[in-house]
Amino acid sequence: MGRGYGGGSAVTRADIAVTGLGAVTPAGAGVEETWRRVCAAAPTASRDAELAGLPVDFSCRAPEVEVADRARRRQLWRQDRFTRIALAAADEALRDARLDPSAWDGVRVGTAVGCSLGGAGTWEAEFARMRREGAEAVSPVVIPRLLPNMAAGEVALALGARGPSLAVSTACASGASALAVARDWLAAGLCDVVLAGGTEAAVTPLVVSGFQRAGALSARTGDPAAASRPFAADSDGFVMAEAAAVLVLERAADARARGVRPRALLAGCGTSTDALHPTAPHPEGRFAELAVTAALADADLGPGDVDHVNAHATSTPLGDAAEASMIARVFGHGPSVTSAKGVLGHSLGAAGAVEAVLTVLSIERSAVPPTANTDAPAPEFDIDLVTKAVREQRVGAAVSNSFGFGGHNVSVVLRAV
């Protein structure tokens, strides 16, 4: 890449820095808007006109994103929404990291973007058009619009990132899996900068109906704003959401060489697989525990070094119970715990990246947002859940958990610089 970036030599794994953050979530187009609403514990779930008439007719929608660049606007017709919001998040993250794509040749810049379902909206719309009007009515760009890898591909194309590029799909752990991949690339010396994160825009009638039929969604149609209730005794399922988040990762020495102070360090990543059931977790989170302990070992930390856990906590009774059991067992000293999904809903493949962004902010600002809609955890959950108001506390090291259908478990450790 030049301009003071490293030459690709392998480094110790604790040297990977977060230098830029970007997000588009139901709380707003931008990291600061998202942080403010999460800290205010103000839920975003509301009635969704596109879901009218379905048993579950509410969701957490992200706002439309503005595209200022004329050349970019000319490309929107070929992009599904999950790609467009990923591009917006990547742009914000690069500005935050003080990186200018016009100043690099891109051969040492990688992109790793997780996604669970890809262009679900394109799938449904184009299939309906074919049924109505015949095969000749199908868009010639339907395939590049719906492919799950196109968020990573379009980000690389827009930014001239010519290093490794990968779409990661581990269901609701996809965004966190992308961070783990990016960390490995940087530690191995394959890249100097990686844009890593997740994106999802799959709030469609078919997808929502599928989750509803599986019993995964909250049925609180009378009060959507109160539907997502992580760790609550009366939680009954998650709320579908859309979002994108991107983090700029680079070696800490390279960041400092160009005059940028890391916002946090991505100190460790751990992964495991339940190999138990297609959709249900182990009831005590025994295999999720393997991911957490692997991430801690990778970061050269013990459980007692962790001040805060940003939980996956989707508001499903089975999932929340399994995670609460695991947190209590691993972290006997009782670190603070929170879940942003009471505000943001569950954005599937984007969730792990969104929550990593929020964890970085908790570290930087010594503040843990409350868990919206939950006044206290269920009595059987022995965790120190932050509720009602932001908790001011020093966060030197934090764990962010992500779990997905298929038994995927990913934990990342972030720590202060």
From TrEMBL:
Domain named Ketosynthase family 3 (KS3): residues: 13-416
GO terms for biological process, alphabetical: fatty acid elongation
PROSITE patterns membership: KS3_1, KS3_2
Entry keyword annotation includes Transferase: yes
One Gene Ontology MF term: 3-oxoacyl-[acyl-carrier-protein] synthase activity
Keywords tagged on the record: Acyltransferase, Transferase
Keyword Transit peptide carried by entry: no
One Pfam family it belongs to: Ketoacyl-synt_C
NCBIfam families for this protein: PRK07314.1
Protein family membership: Belongs to the thiolase-like superfamily. Beta-ketoacyl-ACP synthases family.
UniProt-recorded name of the protein: 3-oxoacyl-[acyl-carrier-protein] synthase II
Species: Streptomyces radiopugnans
